[in-house]
Design goal:
This protein has helices spanning 2-23, 47-57, 82-92, 126-129, and strands at residues 25-33, 61-66, 72-81, 98-103. With 138 residues, the protein is of the alpha+beta class. The protein has a domain at 19-103: Alpha-Beta Plaits (2-Layer Sandwich).
């Protein structure tokens, strides 16, 4: 029993440490190209364009998908610290074909709500919490 509890606690600590590391790293960039730099704005980034940007970025960039606003998500060849990816984005913005570049930061849910009025909301009131819909069942 004690051994199982220790194992669970170690796993939770490892997941928490991994999540903390991922907050400060990424393996993706968001790149918006100038209108004249794209042949077909409805298609993902061309392989030739990704190759030319890889030279400027000094690492391999692999096109992943096009975003709804027209920017592209590109994957780096490995997970990198945010400071390094920000420097890479600055190098990319020196290319005249690049209008904007930034790290694709990972977002994580907060452990506690940031709404100061949360305690007064109907969802967290004692009456609601005692309702069958909010009770845990085994």
């Amino acid at each position: 029993m004690l051994r199982g509890l220790c194992t669970v606690l170690l796993l939770l600590a490892a997941f928490a440490a991994d999540a903390a590391d991922r907050k400060h790293s990424t393996d993706r960039l968001i790149v918006r190209l100038a209108d004249w730099a794209e042949a077909d704005r409805a298609q993902p980034m061309a392989v030739e364009r990704a190759r030319s940007l890889s030279v400027v970025a000094r690492t391999r960039l692999e096109p992943m998908r096009r975003m709804s606003g027209g920017a592209h998500v590109v994957r780096l060849n490995h997970d990198m610290a945010l400071a390094d990816v920000e420097a890479m984005a600055a190098r990319l913005m020196s290319d005249p074909a690049v209008v904007h570049a930034e790290p694709d930061r990972r977002k994580f849910p907060m452990l506690a709500p940031s709404d100061p009025r949360n305690e007064k909301s109907s969802v967290s009131s004692p009456k609601t919490r005692s309702s069958p819909a909010f009770q845990m069942r085994a």
